[in-house]
Design a protein that fits this description.
A hairpin with a 7-residue loop joins strand 11 (225-231) and strand 12. Helix 4 (91-101) packs across helix 5 (106-119), helix 4 packs parallel to helix 6 and helix 6 (135-147) runs parallel beside helix 7 (165-180). The protein has 2 domains: 2-218, P-loop containing nucleotide triphosphate hydrolases (Rossmann fold, 3-Layer(aba) Sandwich); 224-267, no CATH class. The protein is globular, with a radius of gyration of 23 Å. By secondary structure, the protein is α/β, with parallel strands linked by helices. The protein is built from 11 helices and 13 strands.
């Protein structure tokens, strides 16, 4: 559904995207993660046509998105990181506008609005101005504007940032439902447990490019988890041992003659993956700084 190849975008001397590649299939939810400045939002802006890349190609369905313009954009629903709604206008009228932009008219438009209001628990708020809603409610309305035309491609940029539990639950359920119905979804977030709930595949972005792509199991397989050991003797402190082979490390502990009272194995998860990415960013920055000092010397 979405194929992005070799996207490059620079702002002055800063390269926001530097050969960004990403493919998303129908029925797939891709969790796009990475540190701030990795290029996630710039990628979303380029796919939606708000920003034009300096180089690269994008296909959305059968369209070359950089040439076909409006035809490709009609296949895309987007919920931007910063809400873009008309505060003085009721929720229903905001949705009418976005449904019209998606090409819906008359009864088809009204049915789509009713569906998305129910899906995101917004029916009781439909006639209230957006400006009087809570932050979480506005997040749901923004997601509703992306989903109202049932587009085959959804781009959701931090859709639950600052959201309350009700908003988060409703949004995740709606995203799962849309993917099950055939939509391709790009979901950027710093709330990593959401990606587990969504059973998302992952794309890790760093310095303007995707550096790893796969399932959580594939990407965390070689990361260390943790072996947590406690002892019956209160004078003996608990142990937390980073490990990629908990069986071997436990065997070594038992061989040493120490007898645990309890053992718990924590496998590597998305938080470990994200921390490894952040650590790589710090190490890379430190290396570049040293190289700059050496060059100056």
């Amino acid at each position: 559904m979405l194929v992005a190849n070799g996207l490059v975008k620079s702002y002055g001397r800063h390269r926001a995207l530097d050969g960004f590649d990403l493919t998303v299939e129908p029925c797939e939810i891709v969790g796009l993660i990475g540190h701030n400045g990795a290029g996630k939002t710039t990628f979303v802006e380029i796919v939606t046509g708000l920003v034009r890349p300096d180089a690269g190609r994008i296909r959305i369905g059968a369209y070359d998105a950089l040439r076909s313009g409006r035809a490709a954009r009609r296949l895309v629903g987007v919920a931007p990181q910063e809400p873009a709604l008309y505060g003085s206008v009721p929720v229903r009228d905001n949705l009418r506008l976005f449904a019209g932009l998606a090409g819906l008219r008359g009864q088809q438009r009204d049915a789509a609005i009713t569906q998305v209001l129910e899906e995101l628990h917004l029916s009781a708020l439909a006639d209230r101005p957006v400006g009087v809603l809570s932050g979480g409610q506005r997040r749901r309305v923004q997601a509703a504007t992306a989903m109202v035309g049932s587009p085959p491609l959804l781009l959701l940029d931090e859709p639950t940032a600052g959201a309350d539990p009700e908003t988060r639950s409703a949004l995740l359920a709606a995203v799962r439902s849309r993917a099950e119905a055939g939509a391709a979804v790009v979901y950027t977030t710093h709330y990593l447990p959401e990606l587990v709930d969504l059973d998302a595949t992952l794309a890790l972005a760093r310095a303007g490019r995707v550096i790893a792509r796969g399932t959580q199991e594939e990407l965390t397989r070689n990361l260390p988890g943790e072996l947590r050991v406690s002892f019956a003797d209160p004078a003996e402190p608990d142990l937390r041992i980073p490990t990629t082979d908990p069986g071997a490390d436990l065997a070594a502990l038992l061989h040493s003659g120490r007898t645990p009272a309890s053992v718990d194995v924590r496998r590597a998860d998305l938080d470990d993956l994200y921390r490894s990415l952040e650590s790589a960013v710090v190490d890379n920055a430190a290396t570049e700084s040293m190289e700059a000092r050496d060059a100056a010397a």
